[in-house]
Design brief:
It is an enzyme of class 3 (hydrolase). The protein has about 140 residues and is of the alpha+beta class. The protein has a single domain, classed as HIT-like (HIT family, subunit A, 2-Layer Sandwich). About 25% of the residues lie in helices and about 20% in strands. It contains four helices and five strands; from the N terminus they run H-E-E-E-H-H-E-E-H. The protein has a five-stranded antiparallel sheet, covered by helices on one side. The chain is globular.
């Protein structure tokens, strides 16, 4: 059965259709989860909706309920598969400037192990903010709801 919610030139849509092989760890009518080819750490898995959605900015509330409900189930399966997991980064890159490479929504599950040496880059700019600046930023966001 052809899925009309997929596009022709998307790598992840091709994986869903079986045109490109993957190391699938979980699949149902809603999502497919498979090993990330980079394997940042053993068990690094991607979960994708079986509907072409570019990234989280394009999700409807219905999409969230349908596709993201599987995050805990997949995370727990990875944790159980690797008993020495001490944590897990569950991330998504949304847009090219956020390092999204495949323009089909996907969630990364990156198992963390004691001493794995993996560093996710963040920075602390708290010293550049005072109460007025925090309120200004918060108010800009609040005004969008």
């Amino acid at each position: 059965m052809e899925n009309k919610n997929l596009v022709d030139d998307c790598l992840f849509c091709k994986i869903i259709r079986g045109e490109v092989p993957s190391y699938t760890v979980f699949e149902n009518d809603d999502v497919k989860a498979f090993l990330d080819i980079s394997q940042v750490n053993p068990g690094h898995t991607l979960m994708i909706p079986k509907k072409h959605i570019t990234n989280l900015f394009d999700y409807t509330k219905e999409d969230v309920q349908r596709y993201l409900q599987y995050i805990p189930e997949i995370a727990n399966a990875i944790k159980k598969a690797f008993p020495n997991v001490t944590g897990m980064n569950i991330t998504t890159n949304n847009g090219k400037s956020a390092n999204q490479v495949v323009m089909h929504s996907h969630i990364h599950f990156i198992p963390r192990f004691k001493g794995d040496g993996l560093k996710l880059m963040t920075r602390n700019n708290a010293d550049q903010y005072d109460e007025a600046k925090y309120n200004e930023v918060a108010d800009k966001i609040k005004a969008q709801f």
